[in-house]
Amino acid sequence: MLRKGVLGLMLMASSCAYANDKSELKQLLDDFLANTIQDDLKNHQQFWANDLIYTSSAGKRFGKSSIINGIKAEQAAKKEHEKSDSEPSYWAEDTDIRLYGTTAIVAFKLGAEWVEDDVELQQFYYNTGTFLKRNGKWQVVAWQATKIPESLSEN
Predict the structure, then answer these.
(1) Residue 22 domain-assigned?
(2) Which residue positions in the chain have pLDDT lower than 50?
(3) Engineering a disulfide at 108: which of 60, 95, 99, 141 sits with its beta carbon 3.0 to 4.6 angstroms away?
(4) 144-147 contacts: CB < 8 A, separation 24 or more?
(5) Given this model, what pLDDT does residue 18 score?
């Protein structure tokens, strides 16, 4: 009888940790996407692991340092040339989070919206990220982005 009670408590604790990790990952993703423009460097430094492998929708592969250097270059260019077009806003749809201990796979549809020459534009991507929980903190170690053709993005 005692074993069943202990096992039940262990299963409940495991289930609770699972739900907490899923919730934490969803919040991490949503916060990252919502704040990508406002605080690029800090946001990206925390989200991406130092050993990141990122495969872009354009088929290029790079790491965290390339992302950080690209943001710094963008920020320097913005200071020199102020544009009237809007910064893009990002959001996640259809998020699917799967946990495997201290590893998580997060797949979702990324939406991006911005204004260019007074025209509102949107683009969608399928993204899959592999997160590892190290020292109690989730970070992305691998990322794959695939641009969804406009003909399919309304499905």
Answers:
(1) yes
(2) none
(3) 95
(4) 144/55, 145/54, 145/55, 145/56, 145/57, 145/110, 146/57, 147/57, 147/58, 147/123
(5) 82
Q: Are 110 and 127 in contact (CB under 8 A)?
A: yes
User: Structure tokens of 103?
Assistant: 């590893």
Q: Does the residue 154 lie in any domain?
A: no
* Longest distance between any two alpha carbons in the chain, whole Å: 72
According to the model, what pLDDT value does residue 14 have?
62
Strand partners for 92: 110
| Number of domains, the chain | 1
Read off the CATH number of the domain in which 90 is found. Answer: 3.10.450.50
